[in-house]
């Protein structure tokens, strides 16, 4: 489980996002990060049992992201993130394609997965797969149990017009307009500090696995 102390650290960091405070509280950060690494390790074990592209021996350190913010190209200049994040794929957090993601934040934790803003060649391949196998795609993401848990795909970056090569009357046109293929499910602090937190995260990823597999097949 994620410890209450981990969430407390993130809360305090958000209120004191500066290097002087962080230096004094570096030990709290290290303890929180260790907690997240241990949690990620248990998630990896669970993931690898149904998604065999995820090595059971994947190092959690290759999945959990650093808390230090890259401010070079960002309008947000605070030096630290107010969350812990972990990406899960064959190569941990370094993946260009489908994968799973865990976001730990006192006021907005969630699990997610898919292919976020794929590059042009990957986007073309995913759209082509949806074009060719729309019924299979719908069977996955329009399954009632899937919708109940994940809802609709992320549509923030959805095109307002049809993508090149597809007509407005295409049966899958609303999905073909997507530029990012991801789903997410919010998790409360109570859920993540519960003894069944790892199982809940793993089960959530398991529900997402057929969608991930569809995307992988599209770009393979």
From TrEMBL:
InterPro entries: CHP02453, UCP028451
Pfam families: DUF2461
Transmembrane segments: none
NCBIfam families xrefs: TIGR02453 family protein
Designated name of the protein: TIGR02453 family protein
Organism of origin: Daejeonella rubra
């Amino acid at each position: 489980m994620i410890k209450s102390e981990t969430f407390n650290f993130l809360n305090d960091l958000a209120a004191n996002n500066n290097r002087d405070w962080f230096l004094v509280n570096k030990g709290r950060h290290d303890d929180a990060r260790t907690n997240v690494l241990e949690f990620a390790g248990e998630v990896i074990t669970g993931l690898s049992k149904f998604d065999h592209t995820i090595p059971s021996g994947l190092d959690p350190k290759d999945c959990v992201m650093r808390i230090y913010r890259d401010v070079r190209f960002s309008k947000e200049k605070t030096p630290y993130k107010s969350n812990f994040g972990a990406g899960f794929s064959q190569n941990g957090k370094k993946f260009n394609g489908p994968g799973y993601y865990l976001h730990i934040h006192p006021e907005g934790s969630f699990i997610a997965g898919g292919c976020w803003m794929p590059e042009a060649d990957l986007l073309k391949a995913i759209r082509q797969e949806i074009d060719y196998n729309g019924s299979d795609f719908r069977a996955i993401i329009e399954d009632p149990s899937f919708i109940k848990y994940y809802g609709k795909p992320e549509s923030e970056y959805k095109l307002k017009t049809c993508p090149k090569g597809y007509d407005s009357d295409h049966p899958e046109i609303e999905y073909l307009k997507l530029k990012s293929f991801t789903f997410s499910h919010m998790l409360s602090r109570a859920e993540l500090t519960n003894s069944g937190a790892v199982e809940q995260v793993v089960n959530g990823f398991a529900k997402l696995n057929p969608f991930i597999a569809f995307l992988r097949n599209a770009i393979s």
